[in-house]
Amino acid sequence: MATNFQGKVAFVTGGSRGIGAAVVQRLADGGATVAFTYKGSKAAAEDLVARIQASGGRALALLADASDAAALTQAVNDAAQQFGKIDILVNNAGVFTLGSVADLALEDFDRMLDVNVRAVFVASKAALAHMGEGGRIINIGSTNAQRIPFAGGATYAMSKAALVGLVKGMARDVGPRGITVNNVQPGPTNTDMNPAEGDFAASMHDQMALKYHARPEDIAAMVAYVAGEEASFVTGASLTIDGGYSA
Ligand code: NDP
């Protein structure tokens, strides 16, 4: 049964492609009005808005680099102004640059921290100004927060592990307001970031109980659960959906 998001307003970072686009579509299918950000994929973002509008939904694409705190805050405020509130925030935008600590450029380290961690703080802070009772903050973390079984992923793993602590503390900050805060931690998921036919796919499947990539829609389904009414008692949690990668 599709979760009912009628009357809800959602804001999704990085909604133009991959997991973010599937989350936007899933929430819109449930009746939510969805604002989402993109950085480089303008055409894909506009296509997604057009598809949602064609099926009777409401969606808005906003250009905002997640590493630009002012732009991201402005996007959240613009969405709240246009739609009146924000009920559901999904911090999805993320980047991954492979490189050992000895080799990774400091700029790549900073970019992963800016997009994967700092932007989550920035968007959450901005959205909380427009969020009431029953609100939901959901971050897309990663199974790599708990297991990183290959070299070159230290900074990415650190960035996603940071979210584990963040949601525990934030859940306590906003619990009294009736708002929940959680991470959804995917394993290998078929997107541009991690194609199911990519060079590393087979070695990932070797690590898994289920030897295939998730579809972005599989991850969006767990996001929809956490965003929904039935998950009202779930908070401060990091929920892994990884085909047994960390089992
Ligand atoms: P993709 O690279 O396929 O898509 C990334 C999305 O994020 C795009 O919509 C992109 O927008 C957006 N984005 C990236 N950087 C920025 C930025 N600076 N500002 C705004 N938007 C940005 O990634 P996935 O869909 O695979 O990943 C989504 C999330 O899931 C990430 O947080 C990732 O770490 C996490 N994840 C992914 C896994 C996987 O196997 N795919 C596994 C575990 C976690 P645009 O194209 O417009 O720039």
Automatic annotation (TrEMBL):
Keywords carried by this UniProt record: Oxidoreductase
Q: InterPro entries, alphabetically? A: KR_dom (IPR057326), NAD(P)-bd_dom_sf (IPR036291), SDR_fam (IPR002347)
Task: Please give one Gene Ontology molecular function term for this protein.
Answer: oxidoreductase activity
Q: Does the keyword ATP-binding apply?
A: no
Pfam families per UniProt: adh_short_C2 (PF13561)
CDD domains tied to this protein: SDR_c (cd05233)
Q: Where is the Ketoreductase domain?
A: 8-187
The source's domain of life comes to Bacteria
| Stored PANTHER family | OXIDOREDUCTASE, SHORT-CHAIN DEHYDROGENASE/REDUCTASE FAMILY (AFU_ORTHOLOGUE AFUA_5G02870), SHORT-CHAIN DEHYDROGENASE_REDUCTASE FAMILY PROTEIN
Sequence similarity: Belongs to the short-chain dehydrogenases/reductases (SDR) family.
Q: What is this protein called?
A: Oxidoreductase
Query: Which species is this record about?
Result: Pandoraea terrigena
Highest classification ranks of the organism: Bacteria, Pseudomonadati, Pseudomonadota, Betaproteobacteria, Burkholderiales
